[in-house]
Amino acid sequence: MAITASSGTGVVRGNHRFDLEAGVEATGMGRADVWWRQPPDGRRELVPLLGARLCPLGTVPYEPLGYQDLATLTYTGEGVPGDPQGQNRLVTGSVVAVRTRSGQLVKAQVQSYGRDLGLRWQGCPAPTQYRTLKVVVGSAPEWLVSRYVVDCVYESPDASMHPCGTGEFGAGGGVVEDRISDAWGGFPATARVTVSVDFQPGTGLHGAVTRLEPEVGPAGVSLLYEPEQEIKKVRLVFDLTPRARPQDYLLLRWLYRSGSSAGAGSQRTLSASDLQDNVAQHEVAFPPDGSSTAAVDLTIDGVYQGAELVQFKQRVSLPASALAFRFRKQGGGPRYRLESF
User: Fold this and answer.
1) Phi, then psi, of 251 in degrees rounded to 5
2) What pairing do the DSSP bridges indicate for beta strands 130-137 and 221-225?
3) Do both 245 and 327 map to the same domain?
């Protein structure tokens, strides 16, 4: 939950400690900001504890004091004297600014002076600040991606989680914009951005999830997610010499492998209409994989020059940007075979 400013009235008993963040008398040193110390020699002083710091202001107006006023003061670790027969800077109506043990700013006013010190206090938190978050998702081919889902969160210093932007886009990509707040104890060091990708059914690919942790800098977060950096693609290029005939076709089948495990696979038929030019191309895509042993098993069958093509089979290590093929006569008959080059 957000840090809330403690405020209230109460009594700090002689030789007791007080927690100005919670607004309660402290039972030990572990959660105290000040000590109303009264040694046997008759002196009295308000002493800061556990890294807290004080700045006595005298009898100044209490109500108008705010964060900006308290933030410009000079705080020290010295006690504020409140001697009944000597120097007393804690007379009724006097104000003391406190920077608590965790750095919060509090104004406190003496309402009654004596062996017990009557106080009213109010925490003065800093105005909430924001930093922008902008995540840009680049475009991908429509035949490949059907949907992106972007989800952004951050963990604040108090260990709570907060959403900071969501979006759902088609293959054309899109932009998620939101803000990150310091209201829960400061800005986080990083944000957590999750991009889920759904592929078109015809690709045979399962959905992929990418998790990123961009740094939250003074200007916030600006992140560009490019699908081209995450999705492996191999372009298959066929040199159609001699030119394909109207009844010719190529049946492409592929199976993605990660190490020894077989993953997504699919197939595509390049019909006569796809083989009209001197060069035919088809792009095969695969999901992100950090494995150094990722590969694709490629099989090509079909009919070329009116005869059944000799089956082509090859395992291709990834990443590979493109594979080029040409047709060669198989012996003295009508059949052709493919060879990569």
Assistant:
1) -105, 110
2) parallel
3) yes
Q: Which residues pair with 236 in a beta bridge?
A: 282, 323
Separation of alpha carbons 341 and 338, rounded Å: 10
pLDDT in tens, the chain (341 residues): 334 468 899 999 999 999 999 889 988 667 899 999 999 998 999 999 999 999 999 999 999 999 999 999 999 999 999 999 889 999 999 999 999 998 999 999 999 999 999 999 999 988 899 999 999 999 988 878 899 999 999 999 989 999 999 999 999 999 999 999 998 888 999 999 999 999 888 766 777 888 999 999 999 999 999 876 666 778 899 999 999 999 999 999 988 887 766 666 788 899 999 999 999 998 887 765 555 567 889 999 999 999 999 999 999 887 778 899 999 999 889 999 999 98
- 25 with 109, same domain? yes
Q: Domain for residue 1, yes or no? A: no
Give the CATH number for residue 145: 2.60.40
pTM confidence score = 0.57
